[in-house]
Design a protein that fits this description.
Order of helices and strands: EEEEEEEEEEEEEEE
CATH topology of the largest domain: Immunoglobulin-like
Helix content: under 10%
Strand content: over 45%
Shape: elongated
Structural class: mainly beta
Distance between the termini: 90 Å
CATH architecture of the largest domain: Sandwich
Oligomer: single chain
Length: about 200
């Protein structure tokens, strides 16, 4: 007498994409920060094929950020609610799949916004005094929704400082001086979302 083979458990195939602000050149995984929209999609692999769950009720939940369900609802978008440095936990349940409910848990790291200062080298010139502030993982949607405040040795610049680019050549000062250059970036749509970067550099005249 042959034993019946055990039923293989279905495998969830989950993908997610966060809509956080990063530079176009960034090739890494884009993480959400708090309030960043996240797209999530789910499929089930059963054996070697993608299962048809278009007629199944799919329930999505995640703390206070997500509570949705629907027949064949394989995709959702919601805003991250977790604190930066923690995880957004999403639970996905497919009801009555082959006679039973199946579920999975998705863990999405939530990042803190970051500010980076990059030295620019126009015409390949080494030692340029031109700099750019580069924001990462803001929920602002566009760089136009960010404010940039530049400081030298903790003093606001005399020239207009609320720009993404800065050229210290026009700021005066001593030749070959060592300065502390800092930039503070904040989200105009959310005052609680900000980042700061400090860079010690030798200014060439």
């Amino acid at each position: 007498m042959q034993r019946a083979s055990a039923q293989t458990a279905p495998e969830f195939l989950v993908s997610w994409r966060a809509h956080s602000l990063v530079p176009a050149s960034y090739a890494g995984k884009i993480f959400p920060t708090k309030n960043s929209p996240i797209d999530v999609g789910v499929d089930i692999v059963d054996g070697t094929a993608i299962a048809d769950i278009s007629g199944k009720e799919i329930i999505w939940s995640s703390d206070n950020a997500l509570d949705e369900s629907g027949i064949g609802k394989k995709n959702v978008q919601f805003k991250a609610s977790a604190t930066p440095g923690t995880d957004q936990i999403i639970r996905i349940t497919v009801k009555n799949y082959k006679g039973r409910d199946v579920e999975t848990v998705v863990v999405i790291p939530v990042a803190a916004p970051e500010a980076v200062i990059e030295q620019q080298n126009p015409q390949g010139r080494i030692g340029s005094n031109a700099f750019r502030a580069v924001p990462y993982f803001f929920s602002a949607g566009s760089v136009q929704n960010l404010n940039f405040e530049w400081r030298v040795d903790n003093r606001p610049l005399e020239a207009k400082s609320d720009a993404i680019d800065l050229d210290l050549s026009s700021q005066g000062g001593t030749s070959d001086a060592l300065i502390n250059l800092s930039v503070f970036i904040n989200n105009l749509l959310n005052p609680l979302e900000f980042a700061k970067r400090l860079l010690s550099i030798q200014v060439k005249k």
